[in-house]
Amino acid sequence: MTLALDQVTTIFLAVALLVVGTVIVKKAGFLQKFCIPAPVVGGLLFAIIATILKATGLLEITLDTSLQSLFMITFFTTVGLGASFKLIKLGGKLLVIYWLACGFLALAQNAIGVSLASLFDIHPLIGMMAGAVSMEGGHGAAGAFGQTLEDMGINSALSIGIAAATFGLIAGGLVGGPTVKYLISKYDLKPTETEEDVTNVEEKVQEITTNTFFTQVLLITFCMALGTYLGELFSTATGFVLPGYVGSMFVAVIVRNIVDKRNPNAIDMKSINLIGDVTLGIFLSMALMSIKLWEVADLALPMLVIVFVQVVFIVLFGIFILFRLLGKNYDAAVMVAGFTGHGLGATPNAMANMAAVTERFGPSRKAYLVVPIVGAFLIDVFAMPIIITTINLFK
């Protein structure tokens, strides 16, 4: 028996699973601790149920996920619109060093994934899905590039990417604290400032109005339209695969910094972030609920080995290289905690890791300035070209 869900019903189901996932995460302390996204929980729950129904021969559910790409492009466009290069000046030298380290990490993660994939005699791009795509990129990039690779005929790419991203999130939360505790104990590190020194400057919160909201929608849709069009032209002219969402994101980066010079108040990040959160949630929910878990079984062991090596690498890199590059002090140690968090998972992981460290040992304004700026959007400026180049080298 087959149950075919149309486009509208599929979107409803995605939103419903997102809400269900939110409820489960709020009630499950483990999921909150490791910052597991609600759409991942809800979508994965549905994927498990669908797999059981198919395996028992009771029911096969088919979904119409044709609008998934629209939500995906919208999300990556909002990421690009958040990339104001004015923020780089605020972070100074430390931000640039940290940013370059993230770029190197993306390159190293792909090298590890592709190399280990060859040892297991699986497609190199399956290995890449357990590299920078799912580690630095997290669930968003895993869903996006996984779908791109499946469209290219590489089966199980989406499932492997999502699974690797989930294990990466958990690992990032587990190893960040112990890594920094080791550094603090070994070098007897102390904060350079006290809680009294850290003053919270309250930003003026502007109310979201219809006019400001539609201005942001105008900017987003313009970047989406131009970016996908330029991406298609580029791919046609060069034969180099450039997914539409990547073109939209980079057009959005350019638009953001042009608009900043003309009218800094034109872009309302509260509205942009709201749109980004909604579209990411629906996109991830649709990506997770449509994965075919039965295709992952044969690749489970290689994926776990690759993720384990990624964890070991980032810990060693953080302790022996990044810590020293950032100044070998308390602020550097806290930034290593953030680096481990979003290098294996996502920016919320990074913030959770740093919060755990600073609550126990003391504040670090530098870390709280640098890590969110790079982790939230600047990281993609390096990671995206590296991922796209890897795809084109091994397609």
Could you please describe the fold and organization of this structure?
The chain has 15 helices and two strands. With 395 residues, it is an all-alpha fold. The chain has one domain (2-196, 208-394). A two-stranded parallel sheet has the order 1-2. Helix 5 (86-119) packs antiparallel against helix 12. The longest helix is centred in the first third of the chain and has 34 residues, at 86-119. The protein is globular, with a radius of gyration of 21 Å. The two termini are 36 Å apart. Mean pLDDT is 88; it is low at 197-204.
Can you lay out the helices and strands and say which pair or pack?
Blueprint: E1 2-4, H1 7-27, H2 29-33, H3 38-55, E2 60-62, H4 68-81, H5 86-119, H6 124-128, H7 138-151, H8 157-187, H9 210-238, H10 244-262, H11 269-289, H12 300-325, H13 330-344, H14 347-361, H15 365-394
Supply database-style keywords:
395 residues; two-stranded parallel sheet; transmembrane; ion transport; 75% helix; amino-acid transport; 2% strand; symport; membrane; mainly alpha
Brief write-up:
The protein contains 15 helices and two strands. With 395 residues, the protein is mainly alpha-helical.
> Which residues sit in consecutive blocks of at least 5 with pLDDT less than 50?
197-204
Largest sheet: 2 strands, parallel
Helical fraction = over 70%
Total tally of structural domains = 1
Family: Belongs to the glutamate:Na(+) symporter (ESS) (TC 2.A.27) family.
Main location: membrane
Membrane topology: Multi-pass membrane protein
Organism: Peribacillus huizhouensis
